[in-house]
Every structure is written in C-alpha cells, then in structure tokens.
Amino acid sequence: MEFIYQFVWIVPFFPFLASILIGSNLLFFPKSTKSLRYIWAIFSIFVLFLVMIFSFAILWQQYIDNTIHRYLWSWIFDKNIDFKIGFLVDPLTSTMLVLITTVGVLVMIYSDSYMSHDQGYVRFFAYLSLFTASMLGLVLSPNLIQIYIFWELVGMCSYLLIGFWFTRPSAANACQKAFITNRIGDFGLLLGILGFYWLTGSFEFETLFKRFNELLINHQVNLYFANLCALLLFLGPIAKSAQFPLHVWLPDAMEGPTPISALIHAATMVAAGIFLIARLFPLFQALPYIMNIISWIGALTALLGASIALVQKDLKKGLAYSTMSQLGYMMLALGIGSYQAGLFHLITHAYSKALLFLGSGSVIHSMESIVGYSPNKCQNMTFMGGLRKFMPITGTTFLIGTFSLCGIPPFACFWSKDAIITDSWLYFPGLGWISSLTAGLTAFYMFRIYFLTFEGCLRSNSTNKMAFINSVPIWGDLQSNNKKLEFISKNLNNNNKLLKNEKCIYPKESDNKMLFTLIILALPTLFIGFLGAPFPEGQSGFDLLSQWLYPIFKNSSEISPGNWLEFGLNAINSLTIVVIGIFFAFILYGPVSFFPQNLDNFFEFLLKKKFNYFFSFLYNWSYFRGYIDFYYDIVFVKGTRLLAQFLLIFDERIIDGIVNGFVILISFGGESTKYLEGGRISSYLFGLILGVILLSYILVVS
C-alpha cells in the first residue's frame, strides 16, 4: 500500500478546492449559491470526510512500516538556489493529519446546525474548508519555506473567522488584535528562517539538521548568532500558540463563532506553534539555552493562564485561558526534552477541548433564547446554573471533558499531563512546583465553570420572574459571600403555581446534529489516553508514544518501555493536588451548601487575620488579566499614539520649519537684491569700488 503516499497531495488539495468552489460561486452567483447552501455544506463535509479516511489510511500504513516518505519537486531552480515544494510523511505528520481531519469533520457537522440561521452560513463553510486545508498543508510541508507559506495562510484564515461577525465592533477589534500580534511572531519566524538558511544553506529539514550539527561539532558557527536565530524561530510559536507575552489575542478571539473557537483551540492555529517546535525539535535540542527558554516560557504561560481563568465570568473566555495554560504544558514538555509527552498532550487536549468548546456552544445556543444574543449575557455564567436538568447530554459530555482536562484517571489528559508533571520534577524542581500548582488551579477553575453552568438553580429566564437579584460572586466578596447568593428561583418543583400563571422559558437540549458531535468527541476523550499508557516491560500493546511517535533523528529502539509502579506512585501526588482543587471548587460553587455558618466564620477568620488583602490582590490579578492588557495598552497603544503625535509635531514644526525657513530666506534675499539691479552704470561702478575698498581693508588689517 505504499502507493498511497504518492496521492498524499489530495489531503490539502480537496478542502482547498472545496473552499475555492464555494467562494467563487458565492462571489459570482450569490443568490443561487445561498439557495443551495445546505448542498454546499454537505459537499464541504463530504470532502473533508474523504480526506479523513485517507488520513487514517496513511496513519495505518505508517504504523505498519514506520518509514519516512518525501516527495519533492523543484519550484525555483537557479545555479545557487534550489527551492523545492512537496510533502513529508512521518509519524508526526500522519498523527496530525488524523487529528485535524477528525476534529474538522465534527466541527463542520456541528456548524451545520449552529450556524443554520446565520446569513453568512455559506461563507463560514468556505472559510472552514480553507482553514483546514491550510493546516493540512502546514503539517505536510517538507521545508521551512513551505511551512511559512501555510503558516501565513493559517493566520489569514484565523483573521477571517475571528472577525466573521465583523459588523460587531468587538469582533472587528479582536481579529485585528490577533492579526497584529501574530505579525510580531511571524516577522521573527521569517528572520529566524533566513538566519538558519544563511548558516546551513538549506531549507530542507533533514539537510538543515545535519549541516547544523556538523557546524556545532566542528565549532564553525557562532553560538550567539545561532541562539539568536533559534530564538527568532521560537517567536513564531510564541505568538501562534498564545505563549507569554504574546498571548493577549487568544481570549479576544472568542468573538468568533463557537465552532471556530473549537477548531482554533483544538486542532489548527494554536496547535501550529506546538507542531513547529516538534518538527524543529532536533534543531532546538542542540541549543540548551533555547531549550531552557522554551521550558520556562511554557511554565510561566501555564501558570499565568490558570491564574487568570480563576474568576472569568465569560464561559468561552474561561475555556480560552484554559487552552493557554494547557499549551504552556505542551511547550514546557518540549522545552525539557519530553517530546512524546508534549505531543501526547497535544492529542489528548485537542479532543477534550473540542468537546468542551462545542459543549459551551450548545449552552450558549440554548441561552440565547432566554437572555438574548449579546455575548455579555448568553456567555455569562452568572446567568446560567442548573442546566444539567434541561440539557442532560450536554452536561454529561461537558463533565467528561472537565474530568479529562483536570487530569482524572482514566480520562485522556490524565496520561499525558501526569507524564509532563513527572518529567518536570525530574528536570528541575522549580518547574515541577509550577506544573503541579497549575494542575491544582486547573481542577479548581474547570469545576467552577461546570458548577456555575450546570449545577444549582437556573438564575435567569425571559420573564425575569425567576432572575437572580445579585450576580453569583465569581471569586467572592468575602464579607457578603452568602448574602449575594439570593435567588427568587430555588427549586422548579416548588414553583408549579408560578409556572401555571407565567410562561417561563427554559433552556432546551440542542438538536441531534450538535449532540452527535458531542457524543462522538466524548469517546476519544474517554479512551484515547490508553494509546500512550505506560505498558509494562515485556507486554505487548499499541503504545503509540513510546514505540512510535519520536523525533525523526531518534531510533525507536532507544525508547524504554513504561513502568506501571513508577507511574502510579508519581500520579498519586498530582491526583492529590487535583482533588484539593476540586474540593475547594465544590465548597465555594457546588450545588450543595456545606456548613454555611462555618464558611462565614472561615471568611471572618480570614478577614481578622488580614488575609483579605491577599485574596483581593488575587481576584484583581485574575479579573484584570494580570494587568498585562492594561500595560500593553499604555505602552504600545497609547505610546504609539503619543509617538505619532510627537512625529507629527516634529514634522510640522522642525522639518517643515527648516524647509519653510530656507524658502523665506531665499525669497527675502531675492526680493532685496532685485533693487540693486536698476540698470544704471554709475551704481554698478560704485558697488565695484566699494567692494574693492572693503577687500583691501580686510587684507591690510589681517
């Protein structure tokens, strides 16, 4: 079946063709295209489904022969330059192809229902097809030039999809923010690519790795310059994968439709940065200083994202900061050399986060009929509560995703996250503490999101008869924590008389298409973690990571099998931290009020012991996003405006002033000298004699 590799070009080409066909017809025949919009949607889904089947065939063939296949064609050929385009298929590529296509197909099916009433329905599917085609082309790229081309296409598609509802000012601002922030990273990536081409003379991965290692061994390269080029390369993934300090675009990207939020956060844009680090792993591993920078950037991003997610009111933004934190875990793993754990977490997190985002979309879709279409209301968790009663399938699947993301066995993310935490402790205790603390915070904010959304009582509906008096405290005003939890609606069974007299609107479960995708995504969230479970030595099993998914320079025989006992002992510590996080979330936000008087006494104790300042600072830190956006606004936005005003004044007063001064001086000189030219010979002789006398006097005096 090796001939299958010769047709790998259809993987990015088919979705790209679908996007071109839909876009062309929408441009030239808008009315007929919109009238046949469901046919175009089915066409997009069918094309990507075929690509998904083909991707599974490639994955199976890779599992059988475990070989690397390259197909290259000359693009620009010259005496000194030979640019090639083509495809590279290896275990990393085949895994990413399956990941992108499976999530992409499910998102498209989900979008068919979610976007059915939107006027831009057909345009949305054109963008989706182009987005998936760009990401598929990126993971198949055999060199840095081709990666950069598709890298920019992914950025362009994210701009189009984040700003899909461009008439909404917040969406227009969000897509511009994402675009500009990523331009910073992309410029650094381009400089890094050119720097390594100057060092090695090649863009091809295998040749680049080989020549660079030879230069290092023979001490023929300046390490400062090599580290600078690698740091510039890393700047691209920092922006694309929302790492500190270029993470600010990711929460605002939630202005786009929820299906695209799932696709961005699971399998496309943010995954591109992690993929690039994994693809260039042999290059980065040869530079220890860069590996340390990668690991610490990842650790700080993980902790920062988790700390900011603690008090978010917006459901999607809470999940967005969760994505930022989990991407930090992946970057941390790659930085400490734990290649397999980082990529495994990319896989498990993709399915878990796609499930959570599509579940949030189901909730938002249901809440819109109650509180309106404003994101400030339909995405606000203070308007939710008790939705599990009305949306049991959505609530159950969301809980499965929550269990997975928190790292609870046997769900998917447990196996990958625990491997990262263990490797972090082995690499450096400081990174181990950060990763463990982040795991506890993750458990707290994820169950906080679940409890506020699906447990308790419904806190709003269209009649406002059962609306809450005050918002649920997101972190808590410690002095009145329980006083604010006053609701008119306490239990639906005790309000039958009210229901008979008033027509209250309650949330409804989503339709079958949306529920189908949630149920399907729940399956890999439950079981895909076992693919990377540490099988005991001497036992056979499909251990995807330790026996197959490895860097292209490393032999799989060098990877040692897992040890259940060691893994279990290491997991106990992380699970303990997770349980503590869940416990605090349950006490503060759970459906059952545990010891309310004692809880008041506990808060009063904190106040008396002057702990209020600490909790106030932590709340403000989380609510105001670590003040980072505030300082960016002062330094970059307002600073740029002040610089522009200064340059405007400098241009008008100084530059134009000098030019205008010369003009005035020349005009005045010309106007003055014209009176000396009267045409009288006596005047000329007088001027000549006067000049000679003055010149003679100067010569005598000197």
UniProtKB/TrEMBL annotation:
Transmembrane segments: 6-28, 40-63, 83-109, 121-141, 147-167, 179-199, 219-239, 260-281, 293-311, 327-348, 393-412, 432-451, 515-535, 571-590, 611-628, 648-669, 681-700
Positions of the NADH-Ubiquinone oxidoreductase (complex I) chain 5 N-terminal domain: 75-125
UniProt GO MF annotations: NADH dehydrogenase (ubiquinone) activity; NADH dehydrogenase activity; quinone binding
PANTHER family in alphabetical order: NADH-UBIQUINONE OXIDOREDUCTASE CHAIN 5
Record field: catalytic activity: a plastoquinone + NADPH + (n+1) H(+)(in) = a plastoquinol + NADP(+) + n H(+)(out); a plastoquinone + NADH + (n+1) H(+)(in) = a plastoquinol + NAD(+) + n H(+)(out)
Keyword set, alphabetical order: Chloroplast, Membrane, NAD, NADP, Plastid, Plastoquinone, Quinone, Thylakoid, Translocase, Transmembrane, Transmembrane helix, Transport
Function: NDH shuttles electrons from NAD(P)H:plastoquinone, via FMN and iron-sulfur (Fe-S) centers, to quinones in the photosynthetic chain and possibly in a chloroplast respiratory chain. The immediate electron acceptor for the enzyme in this species is believed to be plastoquinone. Couples the redox reaction to proton translocation, and thus conserves the redox energy in a proton gradient.
Any one GO BP annotation for this protein: ATP synthesis coupled electron transport
Subcellular localization, as worded in the UniProt entry: Plastid, Chloroplast thylakoid membrane
Organism of this sequence: Orthotrichum rogeri
Protein name as catalogued: NAD(P)H-quinone oxidoreductase subunit 5, chloroplastic
Domain NADH:ubiquinone/plastoquinone oxidoreductase chloroplast chain 5 C-terminal: 500-651
InterPro entries: NADH_UbQ_OxRdtase_chlpt_su5_C, NADHpl_OxRdtase_5_subgr, ND/Mrp_TM, NU5C-like, Proton_antipo_N
GO cellular component term, pick one: chloroplast thylakoid membrane
Stretches assigned to the NADH:quinone oxidoreductase/Mrp antiporter transmembrane domain: 141-440
Family note: Belongs to the complex I subunit 5 family.
Chief location bin: plastid
Oligomer status and interactors: NDH is composed of at least 16 different subunits, 5 of which are encoded in the nucleus.
Pfam family for this entry, one: Proton_antipo_C
Membrane topology: Multi-pass membrane protein
UniProt EC number: 7.1.1.-
Recorded superkingdom: Eukaryota
